From TrEMBL:
SMART domains the record matches: HTH_LUXR
Annotated coiled-coil segments of the chain: none
Name of the molecule in the record: Helix-turn-helix transcriptional regulator
Pfam families (UniProt xref): GerE
Keyword Transcription: yes
Amino acid sequence: MDIIDKLNKELLKQNFMGHSYTSSELDKYREVAHRYACMENAISVLSDMQTNISYIYYGGFAEALGLKETEKIDCIHSIWEEGIFSLIHPDDLYQKNLQELKFFHFIKHQPKNKRKDFYLINKLRIKDATGHYHSTLHRLFYIPVKNAPNAMWLALCLYTPLSLEMPGKSAVVYSVTGQLIELKNKDSTQILSEREKQVLRLIHQGWTSKQIAEILTISIHTVNRHRQEILGKLQVKNSIEACRIAKDLGVL
């Protein structure tokens, strides 16, 4: 299972309810991203989920990594900054993507007027041109759509050197008070319906479709339909992968 595929499905296929914006609205947030790059020497990535375009601003940290010269701006046709992802330790990248998926579901369960008050932090290892890994703080902010508050229009990612120790490798920050909130698996458990969870648990226990049908008193056709729904929602190719990602998300 590729977590990026799952995130693509969640982020790029949101219902924007005919949301449209002016260039001045986008320019306002692009200026915010630019200022983070200038003020914090951050690598700042502003991603537009509606158009699948990202704007990358390179502060001094990019030069330290040998990634880009400072003051440079890139515009890429993707919400994923692959050039940066390629430098992140593979173990950290998987966990980063998994936590972003959980954070997306966490945000959607917050009161609509509070969603802008939370952001995600991750501790990452990013390597420079010599292969040396640098401890890095990654922050993710979501900007919702005004007239479709269940949809997240923009995502702002910031990469800066990690200068202070942080508890754990990931947490949500409530910016009003500074409170750290650990992402619980329950924030991702609503991806599957209750019946689909039942079927997946029985699959995980090794039961066949025929046995599952007997246990749940449903037809084999219904069991197979649930299997296909599970694979589709988790964006996996088989039941083994479905069980693995479901464990990571806390569904199992």
